[in-house]
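pls design
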C-alpha cells in the first residue's frame, strides 16, 4: 500500500486527508484520517485576500502596537531633548515650546535656513532642534552640540 497526503488549500480553510492507496488488485484503498482547519475572515479580509494582498489576523494589532511604540519613542526623545536644553541654558521652564501664530512650522523652517548663514538666538536654536527632533535626532547628538555651543563661551547668540 502507498500512503498519500491530500491537501485542499482554500481562501479561508485548509483541508487534508491521509489515504492508503491500493497498489495490487487484492488490496483495498481507504481513508486513514481527514480534517479541516478553518480560518474565519471578515468580508474585507476575504476581498483583500482574493485581490492578492497578504492577510494576517494580527496585522491591525501589530500596526497599532507599532504606532504606540513610535509615539513612546518620540515622547522620550522630546523629553530628553528638553531636559538637555534646560541643563545647558538654551531654554527655561517659562519658555513656550509649542508652535503658534508667528512661531509656526514655516517660521521654524525659515529659522533653520537662516542659521546656516547668520547667527540665531539660543531659544531659536532650541526651536529648530525641537523641530528636527520630531523626525529623529538622537539626544546624544544634541548634547554634543549644546556642549560645543557652551564651550564657545556664547551666552545668548550662536
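designed seq:
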Amino acid at each position: 500500500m502507498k500512503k498519500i497526503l491530500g491537501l485542499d488549500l482554500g481562501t479561508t480553510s485548509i483541508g487534508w486527508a491521509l489515504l492508503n492507496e491500493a497498489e495490487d488488485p487484492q488490496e483495498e484503498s481507504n481513508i486513514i484520517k481527514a480534517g479541516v482547519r478553518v480560518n474565519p475572515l471578515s468580508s474585507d479580509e476575504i476581498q483583500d485576500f482574493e485581490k492578492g494582498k497578504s492577510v494576517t489576523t494580527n496585522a491591525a494589532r501589530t500596526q497599532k502596537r507599532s504606532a504606540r511604540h513610535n509615539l513612546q519613542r518620540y515622547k522620550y526623545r522630546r523629553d530628553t531633548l528638553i531636559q538637555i536644553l534646560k541643563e545647558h541654558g538654551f531654554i527655561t521652564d517659562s519658555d513656550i515650546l509649542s508652535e503658534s501664530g508667528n512661531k509656526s512650522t514655516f517660521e521654524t523652517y525659515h529659522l533653520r535656513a537662516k542659521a546656516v548663514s547668520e547667527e540665531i538666538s539660543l531659544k531659536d536654536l532650541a526651536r529648530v532642534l525641537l523641530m528636527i527632533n520630531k523626525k529623529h535626532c538622537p539626544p546624544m547628538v544634541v548634547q554634543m552640540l549644546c556642549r560645543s555651543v557652551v564651550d564657545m563661551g556664547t551666552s545668548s547668540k550662536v
